[in-house]
Amino acid sequence: MTQPPSAEPTLWELHRALQQLRQDQSDGMKSLRDDLRGDLATMSARFEETVTKEVYQADQRLVNQRLGATEEAQRAAARARETDQQQAANTRKWLLSAFIAPLLIGLAQLWLSAKFGAGP
Q1: Are 9 and 17 in contact (CB under 8 A)?
Q2: For the stretch 20-49, what's the b/e string if a residue is b when 16 or more beta carbons lie within 10 angstroms of its beta carbon?
Q3: What is the CA radius of gyration of the chain?
Q4: SS3 readout for 40-92
Q5: Model-level pTM?
Q6: For the segment 14-71, what is each residue's pLDDT rounded down to a tens digit?
Q7: d(CA 33, CA 40)
Q8: CB neighbours of 50 closer than 8 A, spacing ≥ 6?
């Protein structure tokens, strides 16, 4: 049974429409609450991932200490390398003089003996 368009709704129809409206609002509120809970859980998880200022500063100090230690180790290695190079140069000089000096002395003796002759 359809009613003519000019007919007013009955009390039962109004009651039914009001109940449907309340149900829709209730469902909407539940949906909003669920969405809000989800958003709050997401935000809470993100807050747990954030780093506090103190932790960040402590981490930066640790990084600076590590950089300082690495730089000092690099400087020590450079000093050790320079010392090793200097020692190697000194060793080469010593070896060269150890082999050349006797040769020079021998040559000088030969020259002197040739120049002045061998004695009686």
Answers
A1: yes
A2: eeeeeeeeeeeeeeeeeeeeeeeeeeeeee
A3: 50
A4: HHHHHHHHHHCCCHHHHHHHHHHHHHHHHHHHHHHHHHHHHHHHHHHHHHHHH
A5: 0.45
A6: 889 889 988 888 888 888 899 999 999 999 888 888 878 888 899 999 999 999 999 9
A7: 10
A8: none
Q: What tokens were used for 88?
A: 């190697």
Calpha distance 3→12 (Å, rounded): 14
Quote the CA–CA distance of 25 and 17 in Å, as a whole number. 12
Report the distance separating Cα 86 and Cα 94, nearest Å. 12
Mean pLDDT across 86-104: 91
Cα–Cα distance measured from residue 111 to residue 117, given in angstroms and rounded to the nearest whole number:
9
> Number of H helices and number of E strands within the chain?
2, 0
Cβ within 8 Å of residue 17, ≥6 positions away: 9
